[in-house]
Structure formats: C-alpha cells, structure tokens
Recover the amino acids of this structure.
C-alpha cells in the first residue's frame, strides 16, 4: 500500500510542477532607456506608483531598492541594460533605414589569421593568429606568408605575401593605404571600402551592396594562391535550389567566400568546405559564409535561422551574429562542431545545444526534423519529468524600438532555471529559447528575458 501511495503522491507532485495555471510574477519597475541620449525614464515603480525621469541609471538605484530589488540585482540589471543598448546601436548600423550613427565605435577591431613560418608585423610588433587589429594599424606581411584580417560585420582584408599597408576603419567605412604588394578588400552591405595606392584616384566600393576591391602597387600583380586552392561546393536536399547571393543555386554550385546563402522554410543544404570542413544549413535560414584555405579559417555569420559548422583539425571555425559578434570558435588542434540558432527578428543567438541539428540542418536532413528524434533516446512527456530544482530569480523582460530599450523588472520568485523556456511558457509568458546561458532567453515575439539572481553565488 505504501509504495502505491508514494507513487500517487509523486505523480501528483509532477503534475503540480507542470501546472500551466501559474502566472508570471508582477511587475515592480518598468521603464525606458534611450541609447542615443543615455537617458532613463521610469514609467512605473512599485514604491511610488508613478512615472519619474532619472538623469542616469545609477540615480535610479534607490528607487529600484525601495521597489524590492536587491543591490546586487540592480548592478546586474545596469550591466544588462548597457549591453542591450549596445546591441541596438550595432543593429541600427546594419539597417539602411535607420539614419542614426554614433561618431565612432571604439571597440570595433579586426582579427588576424595567417599561414607561414614568420609572424605578421602589426605596428612593428610580431603578431600571430588571433591578434586584435585596431584602426590606424600598420600591417606588414612577410614574403611566403598568407594572411587575412577579419573585420566582422565590416568585411575581410586579404593582403598578399610581401605586402605593407595601413588600415583605418570605423562603423561604416574601411580604408587601406597600400605602400607595397597587393591586397583584396571585401566589404559587407552598408560599408564603403576604399584602397589608396600609387594611382591618383582611389578605388571605392558601393555601400549599397557587398563589395570587392583589388589593388597592387605599380609593377606588382596579384599572386596565385598555393596549389590546390579550392572553391566550396553546395549540396542541397533533393537537389532543390536555395538562394546564393540573390540567385537560385542547386547542388554542385560554387560558393565563394563572402557568399550570402538563404534557405526556404522547406529546404535545407550543406556546403562542402573541402580541407576546412562542412557547413550544414537548416530550413528558413540566412547566413554569410567567409573562408580562407591559405589561413585555414572559416566564419559563419547568422542573419536568422540555424546552422552547424564542422571544422577539421588545423582549421579555426567561428560562428557569429551581426549584433553580438563572435560567439564561439573551434580549437584548431582538435577541430570540432558549432551549433548556432538565431530566431527571425531576434537579437541573441543560442549556441551549442544541438538546436541547429534539431531544426534540420544539412542536405541529408528532412526539413523540420525534430531534435527529440536524434540520439536514439526517448524524451519523456513534460508531465512525467521529475520536478527540477528551482532557483530564486528576478525575470526582466526587454523589448526594443531603436534607440529605446524598454524593460519590465518583475518580482523575484522561484523558477526552474534548468529549463527556463518551459518555466516562462507555463506561466503564460512568450515562447523563447535559451541562449549561451540558461539565465538568458531570446523569444520569438522579439523580446528577450534575463533571469537575475538576487545575490551573488558563493
């Protein structure tokens, strides 16, 4: 009788845990932060029940604490608010319909990769793969060394061996002053590129579309890459076309570095990267692929959707979004695989949780494949799962309308932070998916939810 009673009680506890009647905690502080003016306005606070304009975020600390927020949670919120604002600025810089521009983004920097037996000189100092390249850098590539500088959402610079140049860039322009050798400059849409050499007029690219410029000093010519240089090839599911650089492409099509690829909701694809690895693309995905065999480097920038980048040994793989920048890299000593997903309209991606494979990434995967069918494991129904341990957190909901970040700071409560997306949905919240942390969620209605602990863990 006792075992039966224990089973009944356990089942009741499980059902209570999954009960969808729970609601999100009440709001204790709401407001707006203007990224451009750096001004905070509190539209509701539990302590005073009225709106208030605050000169700075720090000035709002007492109001938050009187509303029931701990000092530690407020500091975490302040850091989050600054980060959300920063994402909105970067997103605006990529949106041609937004006229707002910051004078300079001081943290924009490039990333160096090279292949050869000598380091590249940056401002006279030996530099190696992974080194940061800042604006106004003087770069000198030795003979027999192949190098590239990845400028993220701005573009890619590929100097030939025995080349010397000066590089300047900001959020919307890349300029190269070439004094020796040859260089290729690839720019993304919204970025203007220019190369000055010994000719009177510089070469310039049109910022309305992705650009490619090549230039040499008189008497020199672009060198042929090492023998065996390859071109990536496309493989589509059932040989159905996808979009590559705005045109329809089928299995066997060439995919050049810098290509933009887009799959339909019922189509998936793969890109054979030869000695570098493979890229599997899920349905309803748009991304930009950059690769360089001579420096053993592959980068995937997700615009929306899901993908899996698999790199071979001695190749560095990187996944990123235009807003967040680089999110994960593979170890070239071992190779590896990187999963990444970004909801359409979202600003934060999920990395490394098998979500891309579950979304049907790859030419051999059926569109809309479910993650629950992989690995040979049976996924228990929600109501049969053992109740997970809960953590006390403040949920904070962020929404965006550039240049304003709106927020709703909710009362703290206990929540299953091992599966926060289910906990939010069961309380009537939006459908979300976890990001790189279980305490950060990106939701399909365009909002983001962060779960802030009330105090620091010991």
């Amino acid at each position: 009788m006792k075992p039966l009673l224990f089973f009944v009680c356990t089942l009741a506890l499980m059902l209570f845990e999954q009960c969808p009647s729970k609601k999100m905690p009440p709001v204790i502080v709401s407001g707006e932060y203007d990224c451009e003016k750096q001004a905070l306005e509190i539209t509701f606070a539990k302590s005073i029940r009225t709106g208030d304009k605050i000169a700075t975020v720090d000035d709002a600390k007492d109001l938050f604490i009187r509303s029931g927020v701990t000092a530690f949670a407020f500091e975490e919120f302040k850091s989050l608010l600054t980060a959300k604002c920063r994402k909105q600025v970067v997103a605006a810089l990529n949106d041609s319909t937004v006229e707002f521009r910051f004078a300079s983004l001081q943290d924009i920097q490039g990333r160096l990769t090279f292949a050869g037996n000598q380091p590249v000189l940056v401002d006279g100092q030996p530099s190696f793969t992974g080194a940061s390249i800042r604006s106004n850098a003087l770069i000198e590539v030795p003979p027999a060394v192949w190098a590239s500088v990845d400028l993220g959402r701005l573009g890619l610079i590929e100097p030939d061996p025995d080349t010397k140049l000066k590089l300047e860039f900001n959020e919307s322009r890349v300029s190269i002053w070439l004094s020796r050798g040859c260089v290729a400059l690839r720019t993304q849409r919204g970025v203007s590129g220019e190369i000055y050499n010994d000719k009177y007029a510089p070469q310039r690219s049109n910022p309305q579309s992705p650009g490619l410029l090549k230039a040499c000093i008189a008497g020199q010519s672009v060198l042929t890459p090492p023998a065996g240089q390859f071109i990536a090839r496309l493989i589509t599911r059932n040989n159905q076309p996808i979009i590559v650089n705005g045109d329809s492409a089928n299995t066997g099509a060439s995919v050049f570095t810098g290509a933009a690829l887009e799959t339909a909701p019922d189509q998936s694809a793969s890109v054979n990267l030869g000695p570098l690895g493979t890229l599997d693309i899920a349905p309803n995905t748009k991304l930009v692929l950059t690769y360089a065999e001579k420096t053993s480097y592959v980068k995937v920038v997700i615009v929306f959707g899901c993908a899996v980048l698999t790199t071979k040994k001695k190749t560095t793989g990187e996944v990123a979004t235009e807003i967040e920048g680089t999110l994960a890299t593979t170890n070239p000593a071992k190779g590896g695989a990187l999963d990444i997903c970004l909801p359409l309209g979202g600003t934060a991606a999920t990395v490394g949780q098998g979500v891309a494979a579950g979304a049907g990434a790859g030419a051999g995967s059926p569109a809309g494949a479910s993650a629950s069918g992989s690995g040979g494991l049976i996924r228990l129904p929600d109501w049969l799962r053992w109740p997970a341990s809960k953590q006390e957190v403040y949920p904070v909901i962020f929404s965006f309308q550039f240049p304003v970040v709106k927020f709703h700071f909710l009362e703290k409560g206990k929540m299953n932070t091992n599966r926060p997306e289910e906990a939010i949905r069961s309380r009537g919240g939006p459908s979300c998916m976890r990001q790189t942390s279980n305490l950060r969620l990106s939701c399909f209605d365009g909002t983001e939810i962060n779960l802030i602990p009330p105090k620091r863990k010991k």
The chain has three domains: 23-97+392-452, 110-216, 232-371. The two ends are 43 Å apart (CA to CA). The helical segments are 2-17, 61-66, 71-93, 355-358, 420-426.
